[in-house]
Amino acid sequence: MTSAESAASVLQDHAALWSMGEVSAGDVVSAACEALVAGLDSPALRILAACTRAEADYDVPDLLPPALDELGLAFYPVGSIAAREAVVRVLAARMLDGELTPRHLAFRIHQRFGHELPLAEGLAELDDEYDVLDYGDKTPEQVDGEVVAEARRLVQRFRGPNGTTGVRS
Description:
By secondary structure, this protein is an all-alpha fold.
């Protein structure tokens, strides 16, 4: 992946995470700045990247959708099913990158979405498995392996025609 493609992926990830309150508006502005430095450019991206930290909370909701649109990236409306599913995929990719442990991924997904999001149901159930390790026949390593397999399935399921997922993998 080129630097520009990587920056686009990071911006897309931050947009999804912001839409569910996982990162701040300031983090989105920082990702926009990094995208400009990496060679991405559009009028709305420049305006988004120019936001100060103090302005970010007010301006990102209006500036992010056109910036993503101009770059051909998806905008997930705040709190939407699509945003929730994108966050699951981003967090799964981050776990595969070693940024989260399998147990922490399952816990965060279960805590954030419960058993209410079909895409995340497998991870929520695996978080329940961690809770009953002392009473069941599985080891922590077995459950970790199942979480890794589920994360791979989630990330692989959303690969585009060029092999990218919109999430870092």
